[in-house]
Amino acid sequence: MGFYSGRDGELYVAGTKAAKVQSWSFSSSMAVLETTSLGDTDRTLESGVRSYSGSARLFYYVETPASGANSNLNTILTSAIKPGSAAGDGDNDPSTAVVLKLRMTTGSTDVRDIQFSVFITGVSMNSAVGEVASADISWEANGAPYGNTTLVD
Questions:
Q1: Helices (H), the chain
Q2: pLDDT per residue over 125-138, tens digit each?
Q3: Can you tell me whether residue 75 is helix, strand or coil?
Q4: Quick check: is 149 in a domain?
């Protein structure tokens, strides 16, 4: 029996493995619907709507065609940020969904994935002396996980 560690995690953006990912996380929540009636002595519930959200930190670095490295940060940023045609322009293209796959792997035989279509709901870029520039993103899933979802058995 072993444990997964942070180095076992991977992030895929639009089907391509993102390089230089420091961390990712996701959470799931579900609303409950109360079905308790007059005269009941105990509260009863039904399952309601589920939602999924998460975040990740990617290092921001120079991408060169020769290196073949791709942080996928451009895909993320262009799905969330739509530039206007002029200063003060308030009528721009809507944000677009992107597919994120979160993976835990300890080799080719033990791969656990969970994949979502998501909207990037927040982007925060950081640059400080003595540190590698990074971008923190947050997201909300658009629907249920799909594909080969094996993060949990």
A1: 73-80
A2: 888 898 888 889 99
A3: helix
A4: no
